Amino acid sequence: MTRPREGTGIPTPLLVPAGLGIAFLVLPVVGLLVRAPWSDLAPQLTAPGVGDALRLSLLSATVATLLSLLMGVPLAWVLARSRIRGRSVLRALVTVPLVLPPVVGGVALFLVLGRQGLLGRWLFEQFDITIPFTTTAVVIAETFVAMPFLVISVEGALRAADARFEDVAATLGADRWTTFRRVTLPLVAPGVAAGAVLCWARALGEFGATITFAGNFPGTTQTMPLAVYLALQRDPEAALVLSLVLLAVSLATLLLLRDRWLGRSGAPVA
Amino acid sequence: MKGRAAAVAAVALLALAGCAGPAASSSDTATGSSSAESSGSGKLTGTVTVFAAASLTDVFTALGDQLMADNPDLEVRFNFAGSSALATQLTQGAPADVFASADEAQMAKEKDAGLAVDPTVFAQNSLMLAVPPGNPARIAPPQAAGIPGLADLVPADLTLAVCAPEVPCGAAAAKVLDSAGLNGAPDTYEDDVRAVLTKVELGEVDAGLVYVSDVHAAGDKVLAFAFRESSLAVNRYPLSVLTDAPNPAAARAFVDLVLSDAGQQVLRHAGFQEP
Lengths: 270, 275
Hints:
The complex is a heterodimer of chains A (270) and B (275).
Chain A: H1 12-35, H2 41-45, H3 50-81, H4 87-94, H5 96-99, H6 102-113, H7 120-127, H8 135-160, H9 164-171, H10 176-187, H11 189-205, H12 208-213, H13 224-234, H14 236-262
Helix pairs in contact in A: 3-8, 3-11, 8-11, 9-10, 13-14
Chain B: H1 3-20, H2 34-38, E1 46-53, H3 57-70, E2 74-81, H4 83-91, E3 98-100, H5 104-112, E4 120-125, E5 127-131, H6 150-153, E6 160-163, H7 168-180, E7 186-190, H8 193-201, E8 207-211, H9 212-218, E9 223-225, E10 235-241, H10 248-259, H11 261-269
Parallel strand pairs in B: 1-2, 1-3, 6-7, 6-8
Antiparallel strand pairs in B: 3-10, 4-10, 5-8, 5-9
């Protein structure tokens, strides 16, 4: 019989590769859990700097996500709905950070926003503002790397959404802005939520662009991934503990958000 | 500064030496009988993997090219990174033939793990204060004679990059900053010395503490100042053939090359000091 069993409803040809996929993604995390130094967890957790790094990570990832929402949703709309020429080129350009090695992204940010950069030099000379090596730089680096994830998700949702609702709204006299606000946005809300979660998670784990553009200073620019990387050089066990903290906090946040905001609509979230 | 040109010249010299004599090795640590054979030309085959401190990038690449030129069937591969990261990778079972660390603490980890036996110190390196070519913070040594102290060079509002204390150059930086009473001066703790150098070259920091050898490697992309406290933190670079080396003969040959007069000359030209 080719009909799947009632129990799981998974066709056998999908079962094995899916199981392999699960093992591949989950086993490394299991490895972390098994090797974690559970006995001296407490002193590691209260080590100076851990709280700072965690706070900074959560704060900067959240601000980066808000910035991405603010710029990314309109950008996704432009990519999905507008009639401007060169849309596909534009799409390729804004998704470049997805393929760019993050360290190169960090250098690119220097070239624009650094003290010697195109914009940064002007900011520095006119207003004495320097962006690198500040928390602002962390947020910028994370936004640069994470926003494309949101844009791609939202654009996909917009393309999948039925544009006839928007046409109907227009025939009923709604202007384009009202249509966007009252019809389009609610329609793609699950896609926006999924994109925001993806974006937040990516920002939380960001390493390369951050250490390049923002540097590494405890309390201002040392996020959890940076703390983990440096701890790995000195004391791998401490790095494991820090990773577990990041893992626990991000899982907890995503699960809480899912219950609180995302409902059980079956949106592809977390 | 003409560090790179000098290194190239030294390699050329080395090539001449390699052609003239049967063996360039003058190692005082050659232990096995394989050593005499292995340093001869054209005998070595396969791949040899060298894990080396980031500060050795230019010198070791040049020496590796030399060894490959002498042994056409040999491929020398490098993994350059912060010594601490390399030590961790080795302890986790990364396959390698040779480890060269920027300080003895990281090599001690490998000795404790039974991976390295009898490491030999082959060079020393100390810190300098590197600044971008334009010297944006207008750092200048005071008029007084002699080598200035670090505190004389570094004003309070300077943007300063140093290595993180977890890596050897950062341990050295911490020592000199502590002694100069400048613990609060750094604005970023980078994960290896080349990252500090990059930030200085890009002009994104006013100054950075890097090795003398990095100043040589950067050529005219940075200016540098010596300071008194640097003598307090001289890093000794040990290297060792690893006990699990897949290609021990080639590993030995690489180590011998580094320790040979010709290899030492390349190191001197690149700003490293004699051990």
